[in-house]
Design a protein that fits this description.
Elements lengths: L1 H15 L56 H12 L11 E6 L6 E12 L6 E2 L2 E4 L3 E12 L10 E8 L6 E4 L2 E2 L10 E3 L6 H7 L3 E4 H8 L4 E4 L4 H7 L1 E11 L2 E8 L6 E3 L1
Parallel strand pairs: 4-14
Antiparallel strand pairs: 1-2, 1-13, 2-5, 3-4, 5-10, 5-11, 6-7, 6-9, 6-12, 7-8, 12-13, 12-14
């Protein structure tokens, strides 16, 4: 290979040699720079077309997803337990509800009525260190006195008119003086008669002048100190759950004979 290159070089110089002539002065010519060789990029290889793979007919079948109902009660119960654990709950200290008498010139008055709240297992029921009304659960009246200053025929006429307000801008007041203020609450929950729910002996006692403590109410009217509260369904629970204030007004023959408020201090009572 080297010899071939050498021979080609000799031939090239022989053909390039000028003829022999007398020497004459020649103008100086600037040497031209050799042309730059620009490398040519090779063309990119064209991608090969991929043939589509046919889809199997059984893969095109659509089967709807079946949704099963989910019970949210266990999750809500666990959440409640976590929140309740964030504060103290000592029996007789944190689970206390005080009821206030708000009718100075009425026939029936309450004095020093205090109740304690418990869950369905009998444990003190609290929410962030304050009383919680559990449903299901219990309310136990631990002390209090009822004073009747004038007679009333409660067996003939005795209606309780409720004013209920929730600490929520979306719900607010649901009952006002026995009338429903919300489509979520039926009228019969805001106003109901005492006669079907209470014994005749209690209605007679509350309509007779005198002073009655818890022991007297239990002996003469058969009224126990423990009130059992039933559970509410999941749909109602979303409305019931929260902070509430209540005022109960007892009306007989068109006249107000008693009025109480809970809680007494103007704070809110947690219900769940």
């Amino acid at each position: 290979m080297t010899r071939v290159v050498l021979c080609l070089a000799v031939v090239a110089f022989a053909y390039a040699a000028p003829p022999i002539v007398p020497e004459q002065p020649q103008p100086v010519v600037a040497k031209s720079e050799p042309a730059k060789i620009v490398p040519v990029k090779p063309e990119a290889a064209k991608p090969e077309l991929v043939k589509p793979v046919p889809i199997k007919p059984e893969l095109l079948k659509f089967e709807p997803i079946k949704l099963e109902p989910v019970d949210i009660e266990p999750a809500l119960a666990q959440l409640d337990e976590v929140v309740e654990a964030s504060g103290p709950c000592e029996d007789g200290v944190n689970n206390v509800i005080e009821v206030a008498d708000v009718g100075d010139s009425l026939r029936i008055h309450t004095q020093g009525v205090v109740a304690h709240t418990y869950d369905e297992n009998g444990n003190p029921s609290c929410y962030k260190g304050r009383a919680r009304v559990s449903m299901p659960g219990f309310i136990k009246i631990v002390k209090g006195t009822i004073i009747v200053t004038a007679p009333s025929d409660l067996k003939k006429s005795a209606d309780v008119l409720m004013t209920l307000a929730k600490n929520s801008r979306f719900i607010g007041t649901v009952c006002q003086d026995g009338k429903s203020k919300s489509r979520l609450i039926p009228e019969d929950l805001c106003r109901h008669s005492l006669a079907p729910d209470f014994e005749e002996e209690l209605l007679t006692l509350l309509g007779t002048p005198g002073t009655y403590d818890l022991k007297t109410l239990e002996e003469k009217a058969g009224v126990g100190a423990v009130i059992k509260l039933e559970a509410v369904n999941a749909a109602s629970r979303m409305v019931v759950k929260g902070d509430w204030q209540s005022t109960s007004t007892l009306v007989s023959d068109g006249q107000v004979v008693a009025r109480v408020k809970a809680p007494s201090n103007g704070n809110w009572l947690y219900v769940n």
